[in-house]
Amino acid sequence: MRTLVIDTATKACSVALFDGDNLIASRFEVIGRGHAERLLPFISQMPDKGRADQIYVNVGPGSFTGIRIGLAAAKALGLAWRVPVHGYGCLALVAAMTVSEYPDATKVDVLMTGGHGEYFFGSFDQASEALGEIKSIKAEHVGSHSTAKLIAGDFDVGDAGRIWFETLPDARKWHLLRHAAPLKPSPVYGRPPDAKPAMVAI
After folding, report:
1. Quick one: CA torsion of 41, 46, 52, 56, rounded to 10 degrees?
2. Residue 202: predicted pLDDT
3. Which residues form the Gcp-like domain (predicted)?
4. How far apart are the C-alpha atoms of 177 and 61, rounded to whole Å?
5. Domain 2-89+168-177 CATH assignment equals 3.20.170.40
6. Where are the domains of the chain?
């Protein structure tokens, strides 16, 4: 079974095409912005223009815009190809990537850039299962939440007594989550939207 994986939830943009567990083709770039302009060309460069039997997409938490871009593309392709679309968690993939590099780790804390000076935080076990709720926290509160010796993501807590594994989610590593239950293809923003509807007096 072929699987197309789309990841646009962070400043990285990546696409991967798998046949079973075998990676056929991929693209990965840290671009910051411009995911909408890069994503479809990335997919079109895949063999058979990325045509697959199923699609997986990073549903967050992460960049509001990036998550929406990835989901929109995944759903459009799923509709056109008449194939199922599934989601996977941003922090869960980072945790799985970290455990693959540190196989003796029993716990990993993941910190990814959120917005307004906050970071998405989650603790995961060796199987990349969340040990609690994913939260959005300020940098100064990281110490009161993070206790693992191994920390991963794009924020260094600056603690010499702990190991920091700098990484971003990468579609090429999706196979590390292949046995996890798929998520719904719906956005997981991790915090309330910046804009709130105005209250109208009746």
Report:
1. -60
2. 44
3. 30-132
4. 16
5. no
6. 2-89+168-177, 90-166
